[in-house]
């Protein structure tokens, strides 16, 4: 990420407002491929929420391709959270100790605000599993790791991905979850996206940022390594994976599956690899002229918190006005809201990015974190506008 020194900051700015907004979205201070990947993750979650999706993915059957958004979009989102943490704490080289302390403090404040926002979205009654509470917890868990180099982070991510699915089955079977108190605890923890295992995706993203996400070699490595992991995981599942009955009947069945949101070993390996490959492809695409074709998707990825939150708020408002209850998922999907909400989000985010700049919720979180944890403005490092 670019750094602005005192000399540059003292120079007068001659460009106009629109030119400065354009530069903010497309200048050297942003990594276009990361924005593109975030935009795809957000819209993938829109599809998972709003479309009727059944069956499993079959490359030979285009009608099944939409199933790719199930589970994988949120895992891509979590992986990109790690990338964002890495970029905001120095990129390839971790920040010096004093600046790292400031950055960690600000990230902790953002995590707290994200958790509160997630609880407020849950309170709307919209029938989705809101990812923000889990997201906030994973942010906090990643903070002590921000001084580690890329190799250590990637090895740790691999270890967590292999070990934690074995533990997760026992955690999911705790009697707590079947109690009334456990229900509210699960909401507060975002247990549909269990941080105990999903932290592996965040750590992997952090490791990618430390490896140098802008480097061509790293981008190619992401595609190759991610594709290999995905092929191993999905291929093994197709050959020997447990079906729904076996998954529910035994420990081994619950472990040996790639079913979306199962947190099984094969899902963690395959969908984690899928997320890395998608990120690498997005980074490579944005090295070409296609970066201008996908600018609207990059605009969504530049303000994903706003886009994600707006979708759920609009959903709650429409459902309250047109349905008997906000939680009527079938009734809301019957209104066929996916394309209107998706197109509206893309248009709004593009216009906002080009005419105004940083997304409104991203601005609030960034301002609040800087207010709560002041730093040396003269040495401030520009960071991606995505806040968590």
TrEMBL record:
* Domain (DUF418): residue spans on this chain: 264-364
- Keyword set includes Membrane: yes
Q: Specify whether Coiled coil is a keyword of the entry.
A: no
Transmembrane segments annotated in the record for this chain: 36-55, 75-95, 107-123, 129-146, 153-171, 191-209, 216-235, 268-290, 302-323, 338-356
Keywords on record: Membrane, Transmembrane, Transmembrane helix
Q: Which domain of life is it from?
A: Bacteria
The residue ranges of the Heparan-alpha-glucosaminide N-acetyltransferase catalytic domain are 30-215
Q: Which InterPro entries match?
A: Bact_Transport_Assoc, DUF418, HGSNAT_cat
Q: What is this protein called?
A: Acyltransferase
Classification lineage: Bacteria, Bacillati, Actinomycetota, Actinomycetes, Micrococcales
């Amino acid at each position: 990420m670019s750094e602005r020194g005192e000399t540059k900051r003292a120079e007068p700015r001659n460009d106009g407002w629109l030119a400065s907004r354009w530069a903010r979205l497309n200048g050297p201070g942003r990594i276009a491929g990361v924005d593109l990947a975030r935009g795809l993750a957000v819209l993938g979650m829109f599809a998972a929420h709003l479309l009727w999706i059944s069956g499993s993915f079959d490359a030979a059957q285009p009608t099944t391709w939409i199933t790719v958004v199930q589970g994988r979009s949120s895992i891509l989102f979590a992986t990109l959270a790690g990338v964002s943490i890495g970029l905001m704490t120095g990129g390839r080289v971790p920040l010096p100790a004093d600046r790292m302390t400031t950055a960690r403090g600000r990230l902790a404040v953002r995590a707290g605000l994200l958790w509160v926002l997630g609880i407020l979205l849950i309170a709307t009654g919209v029938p989705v599993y809101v990812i923000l509470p889990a997201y906030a917890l994973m942010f906090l868990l990643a903070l002590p790791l921000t001084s580690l180099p890329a190799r250590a982070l990637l090895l740790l991510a691999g270890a967590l991905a292999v070990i934690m699915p074995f533990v997760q089955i026992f955690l999911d079977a705790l009697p707590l979850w079947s109690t009334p108190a456990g229900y509210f605890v699960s909401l507060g923890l975002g247990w549909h996206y269990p941080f105990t295992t999903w932290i592996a995706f965040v750590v992997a993203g952090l490791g990618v940022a430390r490896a140098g996400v802008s480097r061509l070699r790293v981008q190619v490595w992401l595609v190759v390594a991610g594709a290999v992991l995905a092929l191993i995981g999905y291929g093994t599942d197709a050959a020997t994976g447990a079906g729904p009955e076996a998954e529910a009947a035994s420990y081994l069945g619950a472990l040996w599956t790639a079913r979306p949101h199962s947190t099984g070993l094969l899902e963690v390996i395959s969908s984690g690899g899928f997320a890395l490959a998608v990120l690498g492809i997005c980074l490579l695409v944005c090295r070409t002229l296609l970066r201008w074709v996908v600018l609207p998707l990059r605009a969504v990825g530049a303000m994903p918190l706003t886009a994600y939150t707006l979708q759920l708020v609009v959903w709650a408002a429409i459902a309250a006005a047109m349905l008997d209850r906000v939680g009527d998922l079938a009734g809301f999907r019957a209104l066929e809201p996916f394309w209107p909400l998706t197109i509206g989000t893309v248009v709004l985010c593009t216009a906002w990015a080009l005419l105004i700049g940083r997304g409104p919720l991203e601005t609030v979180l960034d301002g609040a974190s800087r207010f709560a944890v002041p730093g040396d403005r003269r040495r401030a490092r520009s960071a991606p506008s995505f806040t968590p």
